[in-house]
Amino acid sequence: MTLGFGIGDRVRCTSEADGNESTMNATGVIVQVNEYECAVEFDYDIEGHACGGLAEDGHGWYVAKHMLELIEDESETTENQIDILFNDIMFK
User: Fold this and answer.
1) Above 50 in pLDDT, residue 28?
2) CA 7, CA 4: separation in Å to the nearest integer?
3) Cβ distance 80 to 12 under 8 Å?
4) Does residue 2 sit within a domain?
5) Please, are residues 61 and 43 in contact by the beta-carbon 8 Å criterion?
6) Residue 49 — φ and ψ, nearest 5°?
7) Which residue of 24, 44, 62, 68 is surrounded by the most CB atoms within 10 Å?
8) Phi, psi (5° rounding) for residue 85?
9) CA torsion, ordered 81, 8, 11, 59, to nearest 10 deg
10) Of 47, 21, 3, which Cα lies nearest the Cα of 11?
11) Of 32, 85, 37, the residue nearest 55 (C-alpha)
């Protein structure tokens, strides 16, 4: 895991960020970076916000850097999205 994230990096949130269960294992793109956290625009609505206009409303969340991992293989993203959609259909 690296903490040297940049804008445009694809990432996965490895844990629940600030009480938002929807961020767990969610994937998205970094839209802003500061010393301790990143603003992430997630691939789907995580019941978030717009990160001050940087993300689509509902898709944004500020996440501590230690809770993010860089996605280097795009096939991981696709498999993760399928798992999330399956769980949403089956358990909600």
Assistant:
1) yes
2) 10
3) yes
4) no
5) no
6) -145, -160
7) 68
8) -65, -40
9) -60
10) 3
11) 32
Q: DSSP secondary structure string, the chain?
A: --S---TT-EEEE-S-BTTBGGGTT-EEEEEEE-SSEEEEEESS--S-B-GGGTS-TTTEEEEEGGGEEE---HHHHHHHHHHHHHHHHHH-
**Does some domain include residue 41?**
yes
In terms of pLDDT, which residue wins out, 64 or 74? 64
CA 92 – CA 78 distance, rounded (Å): 21
The whole-number pLDDT of residue 73 equals 76
User: pTM for this structure?
Assistant: 0.78
Would you state the structure tokens that stand for residue 65, as one six-digit string? 């850097």
In a domain, 4, yes or no: no
Domain that holds residue 55: 10-91
